[in-house]
Amino acid sequence: SCPVLSVYFFSVFMQYYAPQVDAYGGYPDLEGSQWVYPETYGHVTYPNLSQVHQSEDCIIAPPPSTIPFHVAEVEKDGFMEHLEVQGTPVTLGWNKLNYFVTVGKRKEKKRRQILRDCSGVARPGELLAIMGPSGAGKTSLLNALAGRLPKSGKGELQGEITVNGRLREKSFRQMVGYVMQDDVFFSNLTVLETLNLAAKLRLPPALGKQQKAEIVDKVIAELSLNQARNTRIGGPGIAGISGGERKRVNVGTELITRAPILFLDEPTSNLDAFQALNVMSSLRGVASGGRAVISTIHQPRSSIYSLFDQLLLLSEGEVMYFGPAKDAVAYFAGLGYTCPKHFNPADYFMDIVAVDRKTDESERICEARVRHFSSAYLQRGADSQFFMEIENLKSGPPAGDAGLRKFQTSWFEQFILLSWRAFKQLLRDKFSFIISLCVQLFFALLLGAIYWDLGYDQLSIQGRSGLLFFVIIQSTFSQLGAVQNTFPNEKRVVTRERQSRMYHVSAYYLAKFWSELSLKFWTPLVYASIVYWMTRLNTGVDNFFIFCLILEMVAMAGMALGLFISALAPNQNSSAVLAPLIIILFMLGAGFYQNFDKLGAWITWLQYISFIRYGYEALMINEYLDLTLTCDGLSAGAACLRTGTEVLERTSISPDILVMWRDIGYLACFAIGFHFAAYLLIRFKGSRKFISLNPKQKAQ
Question: Where is this protein localized, as stated in its record (predicted)?
């Protein structure tokens, strides 16, 4: 009797206390009567184990609807509380979408079709996955639906895209959150600071500070980012959050707006299996909050596949299947393509819809199979069902508000917020700031030691002129080098934020300029003070202050040139090549190495575009105009230059104080001109135009 009682109590214990994963960890088998759970991940449940069978690598159990669930009270993966959707829930429909691009040059131009008669619908509360092999048209379809197909390449979109049964309007872009594949952020900001800034820039002004903070807290909770909220994002050489957390922060910056539609391009790219599952589980929770979530994904693991409500399978730009993800296995089995038991459905689907182009024979077989899937799907008549569903929505409330503002905050508010971010980014990079300051002090002390107490004899003339030219060059290089990589480092972040209409480009540029100026304004003054008094240049007090002014203007022109090069260069390598080339040209045009009066007209123009020339000329006039020299140290047979005016005339510089002030004015003009050119480059070079929200109708 004892063995019998032991078995009885053990079976009772296992029946009620053995843990098992819930519906978020499995997928249906071929018959649909059982579910397969390859991984033990998700919320813990306690099913009756008489219905569960354990194998070597998976668990077979009844469908989740027949299993009594017990969800843990502690929130996991954001399923407990969801951020409410702003406005009316949105159903997005598309009918007979065709997308063409022109490739090649001139006579070799060809019109290539990327999407072919794609139809479907994305409903609120559902997670729609767009799958397919590389080159199938996943991202093109996603961008077409989001209104982000670029105009470049002479693309043409045909078909119909509707929002709650009505054609898209301009307000559609304010109803959409778009998560790009690259997770790029300002590395020195924390998760909380990043999301707070997004909330302040993207939420309407009618919401108060407290309401915006509550929305940020809800987003952090929904995306399971509480533990990382005060951690820096991080980047190259800067410790920060994990890849999965970066992806969720990327989602959070779009979720902040409470947009009813969320688009994501390959949200699991560059993530390990565990982080990818975390991200997709969070998106499953986001969809449960009443949003239509549409995501491209390449080849998800089985536990991720089980999270999808709807599946759109593409190959060669055509729809192979669109419908409930749980029904796809049975659908393809009905076409004669049976997924092996306990095999990941996503892997199997990718195998059968991919086109193998290794040989002509394999390509022919694969293309025939793809045509078979496409025709079978069209014969199914799903497109007409979508059309009827979209037509029925026209009687409901419209989505969005045509009166939405392009920017949610004023220009001045944008400037203040972006200045705060720029200062945070700079001040937290303490190592770079300290290194820059130490370099300035080192060169100032080095020059002071080399040119210590120049004196006023004939030998001092060469030393003074050389010193003045060197301080101009050193100030230019130090300021230019500090900012020449500014925009290549921030380009992708700014592009994403501009496409999300977070701020004006002018507000961003002026905030960046103001932050750089505030920190770099003082270094030329410290540098000038050390060099001037150690070398005992012209001891007049007014000469010293003018010296500082000229050096400050040269530094500002150098910084402006650095920002211009930064805006012009597509990457850091290009800016590293451009900067020395331009500076060398300006140095040659300064007139220190060669008197331009002796050169031909073919090269003299160089002196007029060199701000270094105007800075050097102004320093020379300030130093020599009222200077008296002795004839000590005069070489045999050499003429004695007794005044600074004679030195200026010898170097073809006009000994006129008005010329000095004119040169200072020119330096200011160069600084303003470089800044304006840099702004225009960012404004127009970084802008992207998209194809119209309303596609052209296909000719009948």
Answer: Membrane
